[in-house]
Amino acid sequence: MILRKLRVQQFRCFRNPVELSGLGMGVHVIHAPNETGKSSLVLAIARALFDRYSTRDREIQQLRPWQTTLSPRITLEFETGGKRFRLEKAFLDEATSLLDEWTGTRFERVADSHSADEFVRSAIASTLPGSGATKVGHWGLARLLWLNQGPERHELPGLDSAIKGRLLETVGIAALSSEEQALLKAVEAAYCKFYTPKTGKPVAGSDLVQCEERIRVLEGEVTKLEQRRGEAGRSADEIADTRHQLASLTEEKTGYAQQLVDLQEHIEVESALEQRIALRKKDAERQHEFWKGLDQKQRDLLELQTKAAKHEDQAARRQPALQEAQAAAHRAQDTRREAQERLKVQQEEQEKVDQRLERSRLLEKALGTLEEQRRLEGLIKQGTRLETAFQNSLRKTAALNRVSESDVKRAENVERKLSQAQERLAAQGIEVRFTAETPQSLEWEVQGHLREYKVTRDEQKRFEGVTAGELRIKGVGRLSLRTEAAELGKLQAEVDKLRKDLARRLHEQGAQDLAGLRTAWENQRDLLQEHQKHEGALSAFLEAAGFASIDAAREKCRILAGELGGMAEQLALRVEDLGTYTFPTAELLAEEAKARRREVKSREKARDEADAGVQNAEQHMRTLTQERMSALQQAQALRQAMQSQMVALGGSMEQLGAEVERAAAEHQRTENMLKGMLAELPPPDARATTRRKQIQQALERVEEAARAAREKIIRAEMVIGQAVTDDLYAQLCLAEEALALEKARHQQGMTRARAAEALRILTSAWQEQVSRSFVGPIEEEVHARLDYIRGGSRPGRLLLDADFGDAQMQTAAGPKPLDSFSWGTQEQTLFALRLAIGGLLSTKGPRPEPQLVVLDDALVNTDAIRHRRALELIETAGDTLQVLILTAFPERYRTLRGMKVFDLKALEQESPASP
């Protein structure tokens, strides 16, 4: 398949239509900067050829131009199988698919909608895609011939059955016979009954799997029945053992009950002693709390006394520093008062200098305004002269009867069309006559109707006005003729129409003929040029002067005169005296004002420093005063708190100490009595209550063991009874017999499955041998091209597997994977593979056909020397292939001979904008 024309509209970055026409055999270079749509063109061809027009998944939605709802549209004209087709396809909202065939004079519809898509896919060996947009695997022969941008760029194009069959046919390997294919299908069907082709695992739901499942079920049933049989036997033994154990537990329970009766008297004695100990513990705890409370109160009073003395001592130490801070504050206030007086004097002097400076600046401004006013008066005089000349030329041009150059050109165009029409009329004015030697009977066919005439010399006029006909003379032959009468009438009408149009145009402009119209237009042009000259001079003057008009200049002059009078009044001078009045310059006064301001700043700084000193002294004095008062207040508060606590206790510090000692002695006496009572009580492990608890726990365990033994006997009896009821032994025999039969059937199925697997291995090896036989010629073609690109500098050849799923390079160290070599080697190998397959499909086999090879920046990692050799291969391939090169570097392909170049950016700019 080769392309003849491509038109893309509303497709990704192509919102406006872009068309590539004049395509054919040979090399075509399409260049544009990066990110301008080169790869989008390849994608547009693929989407048109391989995708269903009704597809609406996310990849197709992304074909819309950015932030629009436009429907992508693609038109392709291509040749395949010796026929030429036109495919028009639109996606999404306006989805359509129309296929037309060229009949020699025009395109005629052959299919539409899904039938058009199916027709195109069958013509280009494309496989039916799944749901959504197609992947590269569905692109038919294009997956072998297109080297486009994408993640699969450096991957080998895998082969499906259809493409592999086409390559086998191309290299001259006969396809399998119908009997052989039937045998392969039968072997594959037999294998598929037992195993899945991809994973080699058993087929879910097959007879073999079902048989294995039944075996597992039967084995489970046999195991369960055997377990139940063993459980019934064990249950009979457990009944006898458990009854003996139950008798022993009954005797042990009786012994524990007698021990509990014997311990009751000891428990009563120990309980009375424990009650007396508990009362004594409470007395000891109460006395301890009383002693601790008195001791804590004594400690708190002593701490308050210490803190009060500490704060009084701190207040006494602050008194000398406070007196010194008061004296420093008085000194700082005197310093601040002197600094303020000096600052005031300096500010008055600065104000006088500023007033003199302001008067000097006002005088300079008045003098500048006076000079500007005089300049404006001179400009106004000059502008008035130019404005008068402009007005005079304006009056002249206003009186003209305007004739535009377009009117002259339209009149000349009408005259030229009139002359051409008259020439065509003279050329078409050919009279057709027929002269008969003798009257004859003729059959005259007019617009499909036969008429019979007796033609004489006077009746020759019957031919006039007939546009077409066929004269058949019996015994002579046929004569076909055409008089051109209808064309003559049309030409005459066109001449009359153009003559009237020319006369109307001349009349509207008041001219006698075309020469007079042109003379009037030239005179008018001279006057307009003179007017434009005056207008330009006035505009240039106003632009140079910086005014919109002369009136604006006069207005500004009046404004300046008013400002000048106001400034003279402020200076108490007349306008005439401004130029002669003398006063110190603003520069001198400005220097003096700067000096005065520096002095004022210096005085202000001294004043600020004095203020800061006063504030610091006062703040220091306030801080010391506050610290002394705070210390005295805290000492007084502590003394009062201590006094109030002593009053609450009702005694002195000495009395409180004696009370603390008495409470400590009473607490110690109670503790000694408690220790004596605890010595009379036995240890916890030897007490009767502890022993009673242990015996009770043992008794509970015995009762629990007896209850468990009785339940165990009941369960064992139930198991034995259920086994007798279910006829357990008969069920076990039946299950074992069914398991043996099912295992025999499974062994037969496994024998057939292994036979089918072995037969499939043999047929697969045979198919692999047939498949490998067509790879050799392809490897030779690739090696020849790759060796030419490398210049024979490196040994090694490409090794392909039968399905193009893997590739290796033969080296001196043995085969190595292709992806272990450099990017340059990989892209050169894949480039050579495309050219080799394209060359074979175009020239070999029973049905050779030119093919389209797409190279989207295919040699970006190739050095200059190898790139030049690759271009030579492309030139040679252009004789039998259509090579489409997309690149951002057109200078790399300028040496190609006979190529067609398309500037995609220029084509996009030339395309009309979408409505």
TrEMBL record:
Q: Where is this region: Disordered?
A: 308-350
Q: Where is the composition biased (Basic and acidic residues)?
A: 331-350
Keyword match Coiled coil: yes
Record bears the keyword Transcription: no
In which domain of life is the source organism classified? Bacteria
Which segment of the chain is annotated as a signal peptide?
none
- Where's the Rad50/SbcC-type AAA domain? 5-77
- Coiled-coil residue windows: 208-266, 404-431, 481-508, 607-719
Q: Which UniProt keywords apply?
A: Coiled coil
Q: Which InterPro entries match?
A: P-loop_NTPase, Rad50/SbcC_AAA
Against Pfam families, the record matches this protein to: AAA_23
Gene3D superfamilies given for it?
Answer: P-loop containing nucleotide triphosphate hydrolases
Bias kind Low complexity: ranges = 317-330
Protein's recorded name: Rad50/SbcC-type AAA domain-containing protein
Q: Which organism is it from?
A: Corallococcus soli
**Taxonomic placement:** Bacteria, Pseudomonadati, Myxococcota, Myxococcia, Myxococcales
